[in-house]
Design a protein that fits this description.
The chain has a 6-stranded mixed beta sheet with strand order 13-12-11-14-16-15. Strands 2-1-7-3-5 form a 5-stranded mixed beta sheet, with helices on one face. About 0% of the residues have low confidence. The protein is α+β, with helices and mostly antiparallel strands. It is about 20% helix and about 25% strand.
Length: about 450
């Protein structure tokens, strides 16, 4: 197989002939950005072939300045049968978690955004049990004795996952049969999430996740007090695969594209969860409840569902409001693997669970005839207008439509992006305001506006 060296990272990989340079770069842990989702349209993934030959379309070369000087598009150029040396410009590389100050992505959160304490969902609770000690001639298992104690609480049918059962024997014997169980109650199902020796009142932690197309934010919440204990945010690692929803959907159609997008979003959430838990001085496995909100496409990618038909008439996603709930371990989250992950229901193909979750925090839920407007302007823009009688919503492209997708000099709002410009009418002097106050590298959406 051809051997490819990527500089300046000095990362080497061997791949079969015919794969794209982009796929080879990903295999070498070199993340080349593809704002358009790898369709050969934005020209942002240009790399230079220093040695060897690649196969590329003449149209792509002409459109983006390739040709005899070795410049090609990584997303369309294919590895030939010779070894390659490929130079990747710094501006074409995505660095995971490269937000200079991720906290800047979050406005200060307040527990005022949560329901008052007496209205909190009590689906997860801790209960204490005293289990009869085992007698030599009884011939009854530990599990049977616990089930008998649970019967008094009408919980004898509660599910006891194997991961929890493995710790039962020791927990029973450490304090003479006194144990505390963390129990998750669903409408038609009850599950044991943890077993603790002794009669205790353990803190109960929940995880709230907002999966944005560009940014992801997580909160650690006290389920007892309804207080926010920690918040973390960073760029969504999927950004390297496309800046907007349509680009992500297109990228998911590439070979192994859906698997990669699913892994990237889960890895981002887990990275942020670990950081937030470190602030709280707890382990991620101590989090016993999880709620995730995102637009319809992000929800599909989080679950590993194909988003293809969201953009094809009649625009029917795999799931909407009837979103099933899966256990955290099944979807790959690092919290208590047995707890269920609640997904905010989507309203339509482009009005997702993030909007459904946000509306209850606004005046739109008040019993009033006053007309209210709710706006969520991010990578995508959603509007909801109405009152107690009727809500009307719509969606459109926002940031990424300007930042890198269709503008040759467009880029995301990072260091080096022009965010504002002005022209002095008297002198004709043009003044630029650049993020980071360094040399301008491109123009972000705000700068273009």
């Amino acid at each position: 197989m051809p051997r490819i060296l990527f500089t300046p990272a000095n990362s080497t990989v061997s791949v079969p002939a015919g794969v794209t340079v982009l796929e080879a770069a990903r295999a070498a842990d070199v993340d080349i950005i593809t704002p358009c989702g790898g369709r050969g349209k934005c020209g942002k993934c240009r790399v230079r072939v220093i040695e060897g030959r690649v196969e590329t379309g003449e149209t792509d070369e002409q459109a983006h300045g390739g040709g005899s000087d070795g410049w090609v598009l990584a997303c369309t150029a294919r590895v030939g049968r010779t070894d390659l040396i490929v130079d990747v410009p710094e501006k074409a590389v995505w660095h995971a978690g490269d937000a200079e100050d991720p906290s800047e992505l979050l406005k200060p959160f307040s527990s005022d955004h949560l329901p008052v304490c007496d209205r909190l969902d009590r689906s997860v609770e801790a209960i204490t049990l005293t289990v009869a000690t085992s007698e030599r001639d009884e011939r009854q298992s530990d599990f049977a004795r616990v089930r008998s104690a649970l019967a008094a609480l009408d919980l004898e049918s509660a599910e006891f996952p194997l991961t929890i059962l493995r710790g039962l024997a020791e927990a029973l014997r450490l304090d003479e049969g006194r144990i505390t169980l963390v129990v998750e109650r669903r409408e038609n199902h009850t599950c044991i999430l943890d077993v603790i020796s002794g009669h205790v009142c353990p803190p109960l932690y929940g995880l709230a996740v907002d999966i944005g197309t560009t940014n992801i934010a997580v909160l650690i919440v006290s389920l007892r007090e309804g207080a926010i204990l920690a918040c973390e945010a960073d760029y969504n690692d999927q950004v390297v695969c496309g800046l907007d929803l349509i680009s992500r959907i297109n990228y998911a159609g590439r070979e192994n594209g859906l698997t990669e997008l699913h892994s990237r979003v889960v890895e981002t959430i887990n990275r942020l969860t670990r950081r937030a838990c470190k602030v709280c001085q707890i382990q991620p496995c101590e989090v016993v409840a999880a709620a995730v909100s995102g637009n319809t496409t992000m929800t599909h990618l989080f679950l590993g569902l194909t988003p293809k038909y969201i953009r094809l008439e009649p625009y029917s996603p795999t799931i909407l409001a009837e979103t099933p709930e899966y256990r955290a371990g099944r979807v790959g989250l690092v919290v208590n693997r047995e707890c269920h992950v609640h997904l905010s229901p989507s309203v339509g193909s482009y009005i997702g669970g993030d909007i459904a979750a946000g509306i209850p925090c606004t005046g739109l839920t008040a019993d009033s005839e006053d007309i209210c407007l709710y706006m969520d302007i991010g990578t995508n823009g959603e509007l909801v207008v109405g009152n107690r009688d009727l809500l009307i919503s719509s969606a459109c492209s926002a940031g990424s439509a300007l930042e890198g997708m269709d503008s040759e000099c467009g880029m995301r709002a990072a260091e080096g992006a022009i965010k504002e410009c002005s022209l002095d009418g008297d002198t004709g002097r043009l003044s630029l305001s650049v993020i980071g106050e360094g040399r301008p590298l491109g123009i972000c959406g705000a700068g273009l506006v």
